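Annex B. Sample input.
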Amino acid sequence: MNAALRISAPGGAATIQDLGRPGFQRYGVPEAGAMDRGALRIANLLVGNDETEACIEFAVVGGAYEMVGGPGRLAVAGDFTVTVDGVKLAAYQSYDLREGSRLSIGRSASGVYGYLAVDGGLDIAAVLGSRSTHVRSGIGGGVLQAGMRLPLRQQRESFAVAQILPRASWPQYDGPIRVVLGPQDDFFTPKGIADFLAGDYRVSLRSDRMGYRLEGPPIARAGDFNIVSDGIALGSIQVPGTGLPIVLLADRQSTGGYPKIATVVSCDIRRLAQRRPQDVVRFAAVSADEAEEIAKADQAAFHGLCSHIRTAIDTDPYDSARLLQLNLVDGFIDGEV
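Annex B, continued. Sample output.
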């Protein structure tokens, strides 16, 4: 029997995601894909996968998973608490699990989305070239449920040296979200645009993978708030009749009929996606040329971050020296045993 990952308790809004399903929006097929593509890529690198492999994406709470049918190497990307068989480990590192071992991922200390990668990837059929899930349409499956078994593509008896991304190199998500104004910024008054760029917005509780609704100063229109429907890019910021912006994200629709005041630069999508409900969001305008330079610099910075991945000294949860340092009988001292 090939190894598989059994879901004991799914994480928040847990789905399978990779880098998305581009090229089909003209047919009305949403792109989907990871909300934080950088974190997914890091998780894959930590277990020795290609960056594009599908991972389990979860929000706020990671869930619990059990190795069945053999051992496996796993890694969690995101600021989450991680334990293997009750032994606390760090995020952003790979760990080797024996058959029957249980990986538990708790609540995030910061950010929203995390990713669980498995060495060799998940043995799940691609749909239109991607294993990403679009929940509303059912493409690629649905939200993961307890009891599901996710087969693994590769069975190993032993693994290469485990890897870790040191805490000092973990991705940072603070700072303003940079945008390029347009393509319909002429639908808004100069004051409306100024209010948009100067205002403090908060992520609404009504936000999800399709889009982040923002609460804050309404944006004044220069005229009608309807346009002939046109294409929606990742990071398009629509402004409906309420005057409150909606940033369209991974599960966005392919077209829309509200004017778009701006578009988030590609490398800031993940920084916005990691904002929690009621977190403050501020925007800063850059030119299209500046956005291209920002994208180049971000790519270089990502490769620099990945170069900090190194051999992990302490990743074996069963190491005897490690176990001897732990208080494994805590909780029994005052009980009747």
